[in-house]
Amino acid sequence: MFRLGSMRAALRRASRYALFALLAYLLFLLATLPAAHAYAMLKERIAPVQFHGVEGTLWSGSAALVVSGARQFQQVSWQFHPWALLLGHAEAAVTFDEGGRHTRAVAGRTLAGGIYLHDVTTRLPATALEGMFSIGGTGLDGAVDIHLAEVTFADKKLAAVHGSLTWNNAGLVSPKTALGAFVMTLETSGEEIKGVLKDNPGSPLRAEGVLRLKPDGSYQFTGALSLRDPGRADLEQALRFFGSPGPGGKVNLSTSGMMPLPFIGGA
Predict the structure, then answer these.
(1) pTM summary value
(2) What is the C-alpha separation between 137 and 173, in angstroms, rounded?
(3) How far is the CA of 232 from the CAs of 39, 141, 181, 203, 209, in angstroms?
């Protein structure tokens, strides 16, 4: 009986080792599978997304160009994180260029189908903000630096955002006017995603505002701009591009719309 029990225990251990070895071998095959071969096998399933100039492996590779609808991504690279599989996640670090803008992030998907982004860093031209405001006769100058520690999606809806948006070297293109720098901090509490806008100390314009972002991507922003130095006639004129000053020279802002977020609306 003792020998029979010992043999059974040994067989169970051997089975576990064999299963582990098999899984390790399968992971090795995936890690070394040429990315071009993997794309050839998956091409029809992921259409209309198209990859061009694919190199490397499925685990660590790159593509010279990725086309998705009207959008084109250049110099795309990916590096999967094998340790994330132990947590039940498929996760990879990705980088790409789009329209001269460099973006890097960690993207992942859970077993339950949840999608998340970590450590997102990118930059947008200030012109991307023009759609939020009725700016006539001029354009917005500077760049918006985006740093997002966490973005999560659930059921194709936005669930949480934590990070910041910084409008550096803010200004008007014509007449050329420097406005300073502004920071919006994004936080999530329960089901509410809120962004708080403030000006950087020393900016010629004071700014305050609150952005409320809903899971479907719709947003409502209310805020106000005012002069830090009431004697700046040039800034008083620039402020009028954003609206008519009220009591105390303050311009109230109010705008709403939809943010073009990924994974929403079937994207």
Answers:
(1) 0.81
(2) 10
(3) 59, 19, 17, 13, 22
